[in-house]
Design brief:
Elements lengths: L27 H6 L2 E3 L6 E3 L3 E3 L6 E7 L2 E4 H8 L9 E4 L13 E4 L1 H13 L6 H12 L40
Antiparallel strand pairs: 1-2, 3-4, 4-5, 6-7
């Protein structure tokens, strides 16, 4: 019998492929957005999906599968959401409240020299980010930590609450119209 002979009982009928680890299940941006949480206090979009340590680094970075390969989430966001050309450069975290390796909103391409100079400036100013600070929103999203209220500023003005970025808005949960008091 020929190998492709349909009468050969040893050949199994072709099975439909199931969505799995290496096969995308929906548009990449939609999958990416479901793994993000928005922080209205800092304006950061925090990655709560899979994580990995950077190459030779103890800090955690987001990990996102697309087109059959793993990407650092902040690099994927810089290229595919923010439109930066990141070929041959690092992607720096430029969060207003201090850099957060899990933020995918405040990113920009930087040379290694620029990235290191920024890090040394922060260290000289005494600004260091702890693992607890990096993981805080992960704990909030898992219900381990309560969601914070906006802390009062010493000058009496309220801290501005940021609105979610345009790219994330379509993927946020829709509020229940019955919750609106107006």
């Amino acid at each position: 019998m020929a190998r492709d002979d349909p009468s050969d009982s040893r050949i199994l009928p072709e099975q439909p492929r199931k969505a799995g680890r290496f096969q995308s299940n929906g548009p990449a941006l939609a999958r990416f957005a479901t793994k993000c949480r928005f922080d209205p206090v800092t304006g950061c979009v925090i990655w709560v999906g899979g994580k990995t340590s950077g190459r030779g680094n103890s800090a955690e970075y987001g990990s996102f599968w697309d087109d059959g390969r793993r990407h650092f989430a902040h690099r994927w966001a810089a290229e595919n959401i923010h439109g930066h050309d990141i070929a041959g450069v690092q992607v720096g975290h430029t969060c207003p409240a201090g850099p957060n390796t899990l933020c995918v909103e405040h990113v920009e391409p930087q040379t290694q020299a620029e990235n290191l100079a920024e890090m040394h400036e922060r260290r000289a100013a005494g600004v260091r980010q702890t693992n607890e600070q990096r993981q805080y929103w992960l704990f909030v999203s898992l219900g381990i930590e309560p969601e914070p209220e906006a802390p009062p500023r010493p000058d009496g003005f309220d801290i501005p609450w940021y609105n979610p970025p345009e790219w994330l808005r379509p993927y946020l949960p829709k509020p229940d119209p019955g919750d609106c008091p107006f």
